[in-house]
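Supplementary notes (optional reading)

For those who missed the lab, this is the record we used. Protein: YfhL family 4Fe-4S dicluster ferredoxin. Length: 84 residues.
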Amino acid sequence: MALMITDECINCDVCEPACPNQAISMGEEFYRIDPARCTECVGHFDEPQCVSLCPVACIPVDPAHVENRQTLLQKYQRLTDTAS
């Protein structure tokens, strides 16, 4: 599952640098997560770094992008292979 940032975001700038996949960027009003790059930190960490650091808990699972752990691992492998 990719994650999403809700409109409760306070633009604290904590999540963007913590994302190992560069999936987080500033949107028009608040940060957003690119579901094509979000692996929920699978392959990097045991838990999503943005979720663990967010002070307002505004990063839930995106119901429009449901993926299992295997799919997230495949995405991680695809992203890291193209980065090499």
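If you only remember one thing from this example: The mean pLDDT is 94.
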